Amino acid sequence: MNAGWDVVILGAGIVGAACARDCAARGLRTAVIDAAGVGGGATAAGMGHIVVMDDSPAQLALTRWSRTLWLELAEELPPEAEFEARGTLWVAADEDEMHEVRRKQQVYAAAGVATEILDSPALAAAEPQLRPGLPGALLVPSDGVLYPPCAAGYLMREAVRMGAKRLDPQRVIVAKHGRVQLQDGTVLLAGHIVNACGADATSLIPELPIRRRRGHLVITDRYPGFVNHQLVELGYLKSAHSLTTDSVAFNVQPRQTGQLLIGSSREYGAETAGINHPLLGSMIERARSYLPQLGNLQAIRVWTGFRAATPDKLPLIGPWPGDNSLVLATGHEGLGITTSLATGKLVAAALTGEAPAIDPEPYFPARFAQSFASTEPQHA
Ligand SMILES: Cc1cc2nc3c(=O)[nH]c(=O)nc-3n(C[C@H](O)[C@H](O)[C@H](O)COP(=O)(O)OP(=O)(O)OC[C@H]3O[C@@H](n4cnc5c(N)ncnc54)[C@H](O)[C@@H]3O)c2cc1C
Fold it and tell me: What pTM was computed for the model?
């Protein structure tokens, strides 16, 4: 046993690291425990696209705020975080998708997010490797890219500098009612416990409405200038929306190293880190259909990671109805790198009672209260 913490954060991925930084900044006695190192899990597998998304007003509010926070932090980030405001190009394949370009522009404009519509010649000039004849794209110039594990490492170092304690790696086996039990039998006492365990959050709270959604990424050798922006097909939205089927979409990112990250795939029901070769083949074929010369580049590594998917595509951030000591910071699916900084602020606000910059309610786990029909007694 120990004297107790104001807050123990479970998980040192980018979300846990962001929570630790914000809690420590508010003077909370903060401890962080992870089964492995900092910035592992999905954070090590993610693409690092910092992107404003508009699937729902709540998603738009969270991603927009968090992107602003990243842009503010950019100056402070160390070089190894490789932050660059590359901009996103949402590429339209046909006239239907050009309608979507115009709709998206209006939604973003209403939210104060600057964008620019590129017509066919402007798109070809911006990205000469794209197949000829594409009708246009929506450019979101202030979207960024970064290298997530190093960004998480920076956030954790900042948390420690502000007083947080990083505990030696240990798996947490039970965390409820203000008690965190580690695999070696150690028990930590805490006023609050923040579950930031990503797709593994259900190992501690099995009733959470989270499904593991596997994704593949490929990285190439160095080809500086091959593409200039994060390129995403508008059809990506259909892929990300699908709640049942496996899907792939064209999503290519230029890294500061000159390498290209090629994504992406979405799969439910896959429990191992192994490669699904047919799905990987479709993903690469999809990318080649937009960038015909991609097939001439050398791929050097393929990996997979698990997104924590919720039924309504919004994360679970805030108090957990089944236990007064528990706060959730999970369920970020494919946007947890982007939304980590806003999540840290929402969690700190929930713990201190301060008013956050956006309405926190759409992300409250209580929206799934029925699925939380907890067998546990309420914490006194
Ligand atoms: C292929 C792919 C591409 C992606 N691309 C992007 C992108 O471009 N932009 C974007 O915004 N997001 C992207 N994402 C999503 C993003 O990577 C995740 O949402 C984000 O990394 C989640 O961070 P996290 O800290 O919540 O979880 P994780 O990074 O998974 O961290 C959870 C931590 O909890 C620890 N843990 C779990 N259980 C326990 C336990 N019982 N005891 C102790 N520790 C435990 C783990 O060791 C791990 O370190 C992508 C994801 C994938 C898979």
Answer: 0.96
